[in-house]
Amino acid sequence: MKNYENLAKEIVKQIGGKENILSLTHCITRLRFKLNDESRANDDALKNTKGIVTVMRSGGQYQVVIGNQVPEVYAQVVKLTGIDEGEQNSSQEKKKGKILDNALDVVSGIFQPILGIMAACGMVKGLNALFTAVGLYDSQCGAYLIFNGIGDGLFTFLPLFLGYTSAKKFGLKPMVGLAAGAIICYPGLQAGTLSAGMKPLYSIFAGTSFASDVYMNFFGIPIISMNYTGTVIPIIFVVYFASKCEKFFNKFIPDLVKFFFVPMLTLLAALPAGFILIGPVTIFGSTIISETVLAIRNISPLLAGAVVGFTWQILVIFRMHWGFIPVYINNMMTFGFDNVMMPFFACTFATSGVVLAIFYKTKNKQLKELALPNFISGIFGVTEPAIYGITLPLKKPFIISCIVGGIVGGYYGHFNFRKFMVGGMGIFEFPAMIAPDGSMGNLIVAVTGAVMALVLGFIFTFITFKDKEKNKPEEKNPEKENENSFENPDKSFLKKEIIKSPFNGKIIPLKDGSDEAFASGALGKGVIIIPNDNTLYSPVNGTVATLFPTLHAIGIVSDEETEILIHVGINTVQLNGKYFSAEIKEGDRVTAGQPLVTFDKAAIEKEGFSMETPVLVTNDPDEYFDLIETDAEEIKQGENLLSVLHLNKEGK
Question: Which of 27, 185, 245, 402 is catalytic?
Answer without folding.
Answer: 27
